Amino acid sequence: MGEAIGQILSYGVGVALSPFPIIGVILMLATPRGRINGPALLLGWVLGLALVGTIVLLVSGGADPSDQGQPADWVSALDLAIGVLLLWVAVKEWRGRARG
Question: Which of 8, 11, 63, 78 is the most exposed place for a label (fewest CB within 10 A)?
Answer without folding.
Answer: 11
